[in-house]
Amino acid sequence: MADFALEAVLSGHTGDIRSVCFAGDNLITGSRDCTARLWQGVGDGTSECVSTFAGHSRYIMAVAWSGPSERFANGLLATASLDGTVLLFDPALPEAVARLNGHSNAVCSVCFITPDTLLTTSWDSTARVWALDTCTATLSGHEKSVLCGISRDPNFFITGSADHTIRTWAGTSTLSVLRGHTDAIRALALLDANTLLSGANDGTLRTWTLDGRALRSIEAHGAYIYSVCVLPDGDWASSGEDGAVRVWRGGECVQVIAQPCLSVWSVAASRNGRLAVGGNDSIARLFTRDPARVAAPAVREIFDADTTAAVQARSGKIGDLDTQSLPDKSTLARPGKRNGDSLLVRNNGKVEAYEWNGSQWVLQGEVTNAVDSKDDDKFYIELDGRKYPLHHRRGENPYVSAQKFLHENDLDQAFLEEIAQFITVNSSPPVLTTAAPIGNCDPFTSR
Asked: What is this structure's pTM?
């Protein structure tokens, strides 16, 4: 079987593309720029945005599509948002036809159960079932944010959570709790009527029977897994924080499609076996196995060059530091000369800093691209499964820096106090970030 190759590049959004889904042969994208777009025209490396859907006050986290029905002859688009609502759009109309209110926090996934009913999941630790804009059921049981949800039939639901569990439901009753992942579960897909595929922040893909039996665990990405989908031929695809889409056959990786972006938020499969990919570079891309649909050579050359540059940038240096010149962790077998000696070492693709305490080397943290200038501190804040850079000018009021951070990234105002306190405690001459996140509740979905 042929490998996937670039088919088209879809440019127009001004923020991360958080979610993609197919609408027949067309594509829908949802973005941090608070809009969704409908795209037509593929096969020659170009595409056309034919509709833009707006109405959310915060960024879009997920999109879903239902084909034409008796009530909605043009189909129905659902957009789920950080603002805690879901909007429903008839693509032929300029405004939303309905707004779903009920969740008390961000709505992070949405799927259609039938053309007129939906399943949503939220940071408020619940999932909800809707008959268009009327909530008909609330699924409660998870202890933390419910990050993903799918439906097998109108009364059978599956949810994945930041509490590290998957639940199956008959209506509002829990049937089984699937345990095995060691971090937040971000993605679910059915391989068949009785087999589930899941992906999580622990970097693994796992397969399960729906009665709760674990089948297989695959070390898949070495980073957060954000999205999974199943192709018509039975292959799977997954995407994550390693800058790649991976294609799987029988549980074995058969292709790695490197991307020019680091956070590959979403991957979706079409009914004719194409893949759509959205990431944090604000561009959606289509991939095909059909040689007749492959993008023009000039378009592929640009993609290849951008991807090569991105991969090199991710793997080679931290600032002006050539990480490949650093010793590996075996050098820690040699003692330091005096208390307080510092040492940088390579360890599984990371650079770690150690300090000698007189008897052993003590890990101080991971070295990152920590400062932009001698007057700035730079930290990494983990929210919603993503690391955001936070810049703080030394001497500036921490609340000013925290507010700028929230505005620049369109994040919840409720985090202001915690982020300001984090800056106050940690602002100092630069290079280390600790392994722990700044909070232990959602949306801080790290370990």
From this structure: 0.75
